[in-house]
Amino acid sequence: MRADTATIGQPLMGARVTLDSAGPDFSVVVPAYNCAEALARSLSALRASDVSLRQWELIVVDDGSNDLTTSVAATFADVVLTLEHGRRGPAFARNRGVERARGEYVVFVDSDIRVHPDALERLLRALESGDGPTAVFGAYDTRPPEPGLVSQYRNLLHHYVHWINAGPAETFWAGLGAIRRDVFLNMGMFDEQRYARPQIEDIELGYRLTAQRYRIALHPEIQGTHLKRWTLGRMLATDFRDRAVPWAQLLLDRRSQTRPETIGGTLNVKRSEKVLTLLTAMGVVLMIVALVTRQWSYALSGAACFAAVVAANFRLLSWFALERGVAFAIAVVPLRLLFYVVSGAGAAWAVLLHALPTRRSDMSLHRAVP
Considering the domain 4-230 in this protein, what is its CATH number? Predict the structure, then answer.
């Protein structure tokens, strides 16, 4: 296969692209950065999909890599776009890929996901059903290849959260998701200016879509294997910097423009999760007070808060035990508590930033969230 390659500089801002009726049924867009090994596994799985190769095109957008990513992409892809001026982030990369795409639908797949053979067919079938939604996304499977505790926990947690929230969704996931291309373009695509690094650009797009009455559906039976290796430090940094803080900022921005009761009802922003985050924060504060005052009644109260959080996660921990054994379920309890600590710290930091005059001035430069 000989890929069509191009170097892309500036984006086509505000583009409204007219579809070519002779083009493929759908286009798969994969953003990639310094991921040659994982990308080869991801693209080979895509090419082995059940859908005929004549029905779709594969577009890889190399986000300024300095390894063999471009060479690997050229082996598998129909089109390889190389971005200039250094790394711009997956939101920018995906947008450039969609501008080049010719399909009626666009499927986004992360470069470290190995899709199941039926994933593309299931996505297309969901979008083309009689009362099909505008956008659909799937989930990780339960077979992450990285053996470490953090990698197993992180990927299994993602699968579980998506599985129990199957059905109508308020947000979108671009790791393995599809959307009507005309709607994506007319909505202004991913917010590449606000999210210049891998953060919550897909979640923000989902909120904009639902605000405009477009339907999004979560189909967790549409799956891919996540190849990423997680470390504890990487998980904590991602949860704080790239998830908790920007997500809380987004919700605060939306709260000032929409009715509060319309915000945050799916996935891990449910009211119950907020209560558990608060309980964990109380537990941490009580433990600190116990250490300072040496009054151990505070420690018992803090331990009671933690115990309540663990009890509220009984269903999740039971599922972990079924999947990986009781020892694994016990081992991930501290990781679960850390999640709530980081979420609370991120939310507090976001509230502080939101209150600063400079923050409000900066937000005026971004596109308003419907």
Answer: 3.90.550.10
